[in-house]
Amino acid sequence: MENTKLDRSSIGTKYDITTDKLLVKYRQYAILFKAFLHKYLRYISSPSRQEAILKTFHYSLWLLSRVYSQIPAKDKQSRANTVQAIATLAGELSWTRYLLRFFGLPAALEGIESGSWGSSSKTLGKAMAWTMVFYYPLEHIAYLHWKAPTMQWIPSNTTVATMWNPFGRRSQPPTSTSAVGNATCTVTGRANNNSPAMSSSQIAAKASAWSCRFWLAYLILDIARAALELKKLSTRGNPNDNKKSKQNGNSQDTGHNENDDVSPTFVDPNLSLVRTERLQIVRSLLYVLPCIHWSLPNWDTKPWLSNDIVNGLCWVEAVVGMYQSIRNFQESC
Question: Cα 148 to chain center, whole Å?
């Protein structure tokens, strides 16, 4: 009986120890999860970071669909259905990003007032903001005509219809169903009755082309802004150099060897700014070719670049932007 009691007692002790270990592990994981959740909520609270996440998922899904379509498969129909499903999800994320642009115009108007977009150059910042003041409404027009083609968003009277003359040569509206909807909306009532009317999808394409031209101007100005900031940062000098020279002077005067003491490494705050501006230039350069492609008059019917090149450059830009966003967030914590 005593042996039995001892065995039961030892089993109970082992059980208690195991339970305590599990509770400790649970508390540790709970603390880690709580810390992660806190940082995650802080990260996604910024609209620009939300855009970075959506953009990365958007183009990553496109890349996944392209890679998956090249994998040999016995059931080609099943593979085609999977590729189509992934591409559909990527398209939905693209439209979500279009919707988020409806919140961008107020920030651009504020940028015109303050000039804060240009960092140290208010004039440059105001010019950048002005490009977005034209960019956002044109993007809204394109979105509405693509997603709701049966609505006549542009009035068909002669005065307003002639406003679309800068959008280039008009072609005959398609006789088949538009790719962006089950119906097409035709703008009629032009001053010249001999000129063909535009379908809703054509208006969207023209508006999108013009929005990308303003976006291209923004990219050029942003590259100039970043270059000016890098030049300004390079003239400030490195605080490490001053500190090192001071330490060398002290060691020569007193005969003290600087290797005898281990001091904390000085982190130059300019390094973070330099990295951010360099990454910004890389991102803008990656966007230049796709932006020119989308800015051409017939980009939708006679594309200059292939979809793989355009989306591939955008995917690389999204990855660089995500890296930049995460690094900046980590340093701000």
Answer: 25
pLDDT of 20 above 60: yes
Nearest to 266 by CA among 240, 241, 237: 240
**Six token digits for residue 71:** 């994998």
Q: What is the pTM of this model?
A: 0.74
| pLDDT tens digits, 28-58 | 888 999 999 999 999 999 989 999 999 999 9
User: How is residue 178 annotated by DSSP?
Assistant: -
Contact 126, 115 (CB under 8 A): yes
Q: What is the mean pLDDT of residues 17-35?
A: 83
Phi, psi of 217 (to 5 degrees): -60, -40
Distant-in-sequence, close-in-space partners of 333: CB < 8 Å, separation ≥ 6: 39, 42
Give 317's Cβ-side CA count (13 Å radius): 22
Length of the chain: 333
